[in-house]
Amino acid sequence: MAEPRxxxxxxxxxxxxxxDRPPFKNxxxxxxxxxxxxxxxxxxxxxxxxxxxxxxVDVMAASGREFLLKECxxxxxxxxxxxxxxxxxAGATPDVAAAPQSEPTEPKG
Length: 109
Prior knowledge:
two-stranded antiparallel sheet, globular, YggX-like, 3 helices
């Protein structure tokens, strides 16, 4: 059995097993193939799924695909791709201080 292809992962900052093939047929896909590990790619898949769901991205539309490619580039090589401010991960407790507070109402009487 052949040794796995190792890369210096741009996301994890350490050597790890690389992707089996470029994920996209473009320059970004080649950059990902050259410098992203399988482990980091699994993190992107989870993050991109959240982005699609939270932002309701239409992946069939060119604008949706372009958005995801830009976020992918930011996630691995830029400032990072962030979740929407309102997003609360499953099992996490929402930040009550950050939640909008409604004004108290006077009792009618």
